[in-house]
């Protein structure tokens, strides 16, 4: 245990990223915002999933649970070691396991979990882990001196997908609603509305035209061009 914490502590001294342990990477993005990546087996291969967290004066807000739920403890420990603050709450951007799959773990830890009412209903319908608290699709949260906005753009990757806007830092967290520039296709579309997706992307671009960073849910990148790329991918034969 002492060795693990030593590695965690020294890793945070690196200029841009921290490797908390195998399977978890944390990188500073802008101001109080950090991205994190965990890995999970998908179609026989290890595949990355990106989440985010915000540091406020009261504690951390995590956006999307780790896909690999064994990394929840290391992520929380890393936040505590780096920032000397607890995790206050977790918000999921839709009902899939790479976003909401860790809700039950966080609830057992006594950490508040949130989703939209639509995401909650889908989790209940599909017998998936549900949030303890719900909110409307468009909601502004004010926590520890920082305000951020949950925004429902319409259907795309799923019928319940939302994005999160951190206006002070001009960061748009897209989750799986936004595909990385590395992506060659729209990914898993079993719950997607491909026909509606481009129009939903257009609503996001109109709502947040000055986004400096756009964070997709998989494969990385921060380029706002990922929005147009996603729109084009949704139009391809799947």
Descriptors:
Metallo-beta-lactamase, Chain A; disordered N terminus; eight-stranded mixed β-sheet; alpha/beta; 238 residues; 7 helices; five-stranded mixed β-sheet; globular
How does the major sheet shape up? 8 strands, mixed
Percentage of β-strand residues:
25-35%
β-strand number:
13
Spatial gap, N to C terminus = 47 Å
CATH topology name? Metallo-beta-lactamase, Chain A
Structural class: alpha/beta
Order of helices and strands: HEEEEEHEHHEHEEEEEHEH
What gyration radius follows from the Cα positions, in whole Å? Answer: 17 Å
What's the pLDDT, averaged over the residues?
91
* Alpha plus pi helix count: 7
Q: Which CATH architecture would you pick?
A: 4-Layer Sandwich
Q: Number of folding domains?
A: 1
**Regions with pLDDT < 50 over 5+ consecutive residues?**
1-20
Say which CATH homologous superfamily is assigned: Ribonuclease Z/Hydroxyacylglutathione hydrolase-like
Overall 3D shape: globular
Biggest sheet strand order reads 1-2-3-4-5-6-7-8
């Amino acid at each position: 245990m002492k060795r693990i914490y030593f590695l965690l502590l020294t890793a945070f001294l690196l200029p841009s990223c921290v490797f908390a342990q195998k399977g978890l990477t944390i990188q500073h993005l802008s101001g109080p915002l950090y991205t994190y990546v965990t890995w999970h087996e998908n179609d026989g291969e290890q595949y990355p999933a990106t989440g985010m967290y915000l540091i406020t004066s009261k504690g951390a807000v995590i956006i999307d649970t780790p896909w690999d739920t064994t990394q929840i403890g290391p992520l929380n420990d890393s936040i505590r070691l780096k920032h000397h603050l607890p995790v206050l709450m977790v918000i999921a951007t839709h009902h899939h396991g790479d976003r909401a799959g860790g809700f039950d773990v966080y609830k057992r830890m006594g950490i508040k979990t949130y989703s939209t009412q639509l995401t909650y209903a889908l989790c209940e319908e599909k017998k998936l882990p549900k949030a303890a608290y719900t909110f409307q699709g468009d909601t502004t949260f004010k926590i520890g001196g920082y305000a951020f906005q949950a925004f429902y753009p319409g259907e795309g990757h799923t019928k319940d997908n939302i994005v999160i806007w951190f206006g002070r830092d001009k960061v748009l967290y897209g989750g799986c609603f936004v595909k990385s520039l590395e992506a060659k296709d729209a990914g898993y579309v079993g719950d997607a509305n491909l026909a509606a997706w481009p129009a939903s992307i257009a609503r996001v671009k109109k709502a947040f035209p000055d986004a400096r960073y756009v964070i997709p849910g998989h494969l990385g990148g921060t380029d706002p061009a990922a929005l147009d790329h996603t729109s084009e991918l949704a139009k391809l034969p799947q």
